[in-house]
Structures are given as structure tokens and as C-alpha cells.
Design goal:
The chain has helices at residues 3-12, 33-37, 44-51, 65-80, 104-112, 128-141, 165-168, 216-220, 230-252, 269-279, 300-310, and strands at 17-25, 30-32, 55-57, 89-93, 119-122, 148-155, 173-181, 186-195, 203-204, 227-228, 261-264, 319-326, 330-338. By secondary structure, the chain is α+β, with helices and mostly antiparallel strands. Bound molecules: oxa(dethia)-CoA.
Length: 340
């Protein structure tokens, strides 16, 4: 099928729902590679070459994940021209919750002044936003909810071991948000999610849960920090993000030529390059958003997508692919069409 014929076919496809507003919040403070050189045995050159990251954001000392979430939520609501009272379901995706109990969604609920609106957390790590959008799409499509607010917020720096050079160079703080509704600016044509629990130990925070409750020994051993088996994650991430994208396109009858923009999870610039190369998508159609943010886990895709949305480069009918992979392992892929 030609590019135009395939895109026309996608244009006819009925959307499951739409994204009617996008928002984000990024803390002002940066943690630079030069700052990290003072903490661990690393160099700016190594970090830039191996990851593409030059700095990451750090939330204010008196903020927590819910504050990032509230700021991104307000931004998305303004973008959708909605009020807090118009939202009839709130989901927060995070692996860095304010507390183990209650949900961060309920803290955000209080801070936004919501009354009675159902609210819950989703814990899927880097693929959280895609899972959240899928759930919201199901709810909206079924007619159970009208305006679902999906907020992905992470305070990753609160869980970094700044003695572990393999992980602390990667992650930063931030939040992104989307309103999912029946109509809007981005029509959702496809959404799919997957997981492989056999890879659960690839990225983990070992202690602090019921498996290994907090103790003086667990704190002493640094077992409340995020641990990453980087090389393993790298290979699996590339393979799975390529596979998810190809499967989604096949289902829609599209080819990689039909992709106008890819917004991948922002874990490592080399992962993103390898995904683009394997899919044979030119790098100028791929969003690289990690140079001054690092990996913000579930927030990375909505932060990058909001940046693309505000860059005014998108045109009606264009196809945008969101694709993520991370701890769990869990992955997620959405195909959207820019509404006319
Ligand atoms: O969202 C998903 C979450 N996780 C990730 O996305 C992580 C994905 N993985 C990665 O981004 C990469 O694997 C890393 C950036 C973590 C590591 O890059 P790599 O090219 O896979 O390096 P490596 O782990 O194979 O290590 C190469 C060398 C090792 O030294 P030896 O054994 O060759 O002597 C490491 O000890 O680089 C060393 N190294 C460092 N050197 C300077 C590891 N971290 C650093 C560092 N600075 N920060």
C-alpha cells in the first residue's frame, strides 16, 4: 500500500477516544553532569556519550510527587479548557508515590480540591502513562466516564543512590498529564500494553515493601534506592519498543513510512537511536527530550509529547506513535492521529 493510501485508511479508522489536553511540569533546578562528577566516579564525557543526558531536574526540598502532579494537571486542564469539576476520573501513574498508603492520586485529589471524583494510582514504572491512557480510553469508550485526567508524576531523585554511578546519572524529576475524552486534538487509533514478570528484578527498589520491610539494616545497605541492571534493560528495551511499534502498525495496516512522529520513552539517547534505526524511521521524526531532563520514568512520554504539541510542528492527519518500556518489565504503545 502506498504511503498516502495507508494514511488515508488510518484517517478513516474510528478513534477509541481522544486526548483533549496536554500538560507538564518541570522543576527549575538542574543536577548537571558536572555536579555528578563531584559525587561519583564519572565524567561529563562518559555520560553524554553513553546516554545523551547533560542535566536532570530536581524537585524543591519541600515538594513531593503530588506537587509535581498537581502542577502538570493544572497545565493540562488549562490546555483542555476544563475546570477541576469537569474531571470525573483521576489516575496518577507513579513509582515514586508520596506514601505507600494512601494513593498519591488521593493526595492530588485533595490539593486540586476535587469532591467525590474517583481517584487511584497505577504502578507500571516507565510505561505507566500508556497503561493509564489505555484504561482511560476503555472507560471513555464504554461511556463510563467523560473526562479522565491521567497524570504521570515522578520524584526519581528521592530514590537515587548518589553513590551508584550506574543509576544516579540517568534519572530526573518531572510530571506530564493528559485529559482523555470522547473528542479532542489527538484521536487514539490503537493502544496496547504488555508485560513480562520474569524480568521483575531487572529494575527494582528491593526494600520498603512487604517483601523486605524497612529496617535499620535495609537502610544501612541502601536497599531503598532504585537498582538498575543497565545493560540487560538496554537490549530488552530496544527489542520490545521496536516489536510493540511494528505490531501496532500492522494492526492498523500502516507501515513505518506512515509514522510522522515517534515519542519514545526517554531512557537513553542510544536506546532511542537504536529503536529508530531498527524501524528505519529518520531521526528528525523522533523526539529526543532527555538532554536536560534525564529519564523521568512514567512522566517522560507525556512531558516529551507536550513539548512536541507546543512546538507547533504537528499537522492535521499526522500519525504520532508513543512507545514505552521499563520496570516490570512492562511496555505500552499508542498510535494517535492529529485531529483536523
Ligand atoms: O527506563 C528504563 C530504566 N533503565 C534504563 O533505561 C537503563 C538502560 N541502560 C542504560 O541506559 C545503559 O545500559 C547505561 C547508561 C546504564 C550503561 O551504559 P552501557 O553502555 O550499557 O555501559 P555498561 O553498563 O556496559 O558499562 C560499561 C563500563 C563499565 O566499566 P567496565 O566494566 O567496562 O570497566 C561500567 O562500570 O562503564 C562503566 N560505567 C561508568 N563509567 C563512568 C558505568 N556507569 C558509569 C558512569 N561513569 N556513570
Amino acid at each position: 500500500m502506498t504511503h498516502h493510501a495507508a494514511t488515508a485508511k488510518a484517517a478513516e479508522r474510528r478513534a477509541l477516544c481522544s486526548i483533549s489536553g496536554l500538560g507538564r511540569h518541570l522543576p527549575e533546578k538542574h543536577l548537571t553532569n558536572a555536579d555528578l562528577e563531584k559525587l561519583v566516579d564519572t565524567t561529563d564525557e562518559w555520560i553524554v556519550q553513553r546516554t545523551g543526558i547533560r542535566s536532570r531536574r530536581v524537585l524543591p526540598a519541600d515538594w513531593s510527587t503530588s506537587d509535581l502532579a498537581v502542577a502538570a494537571a493544572r497545565d493540562a486542564l488549562a490546555d483542555a479548557r476544563l475546570l477541576v469539576a469537569d474531571i470525573d476520573l483521576l489516575m496518577v501513574t507513579t513509582v515514586t508515590p508520596d506514601h505507600l498508603c494512601p494513593s498519591t492520586a488521593c493526595v492530588v485529589h485533595k490539593k486540586l480540591g476535587m469532591v467525590g471524583t474517583p481517584a487511584f494510582d497505577i504502578s507500571v514504572a516507565c510505561s505507566g502513562f500508556g497503561y493509564g491512557v489505555s484504561l482511560a480510553a476503555g472507560m471513555v469508550h464504554a461511556g463510563l466516564h467523560r473526562n479522565v485526567l491521567v497524570v504521570s508524576a515522578e520524584a526519581m531523585t528521592r530514590f537515587m543512590d548518589y553513590r551508584d554511578r550506574a543509576s544516579c546519572i540517568l534519572f530526573g524529576d518531572g510530571a506530564g498529564a493528559a485529559v482523555v475524552a470522547r473528542t479532542g486534538r489527538y484521536d487514539l487509533l490503537h493502544t496496547s500494553n504488555g508485560a513480562d514478570g520474569s524480568l521483575a528484578e531487572m529494575i527494582e527498589i528491593p526494600a520498603g515493601g512487604s517483601r523486605e520491610p524497612a529496617s535499620a539494616a535495609s537502610v544501612e545497605a541502601g536497599r531503598h534506592f532504585l537498582m538498575v541492571r543497565g545493560r540487560e534493560v538496554f537490549k530488552t528495551a530496544v527489542r520490545q519498543m521496536v516489536d510493540s511499534t511494528e505490531t501496532a502498525l500492522r494492526e492498523l495496516g500502516l507501515a513505518t513510512d506512515d509514522i510522522d512522529w515517534i515519542v519514545p520513552h526517554q531512557a537513553n539517547g542510544r536506546i532511542i537511536e537504536a529503536v529508530a534505526e531498527a524501524l528505519d524511521v529518520p531521526l528528525d521524526r523522533v523526539v529526543f527530550d532527555l538532554v536536560d531532563k534525564g529519564n523521568t520514568s512514567s512522566a517522560s512520554i507525556p512531558i516529551a509529547f507536550t513539548g512536541l504539541d507546543r512546538s507547533r510542528q504537528l499537522r492535521a492527519g499526522q500519525i504520532v506513535v508513543l512507545v514505552g518500556f521499563g520496570a516490570g518489565a512492562a511496555w505500552s504503545c499508542q498510535v494517535l492521529r492529529v485531529a483536523g
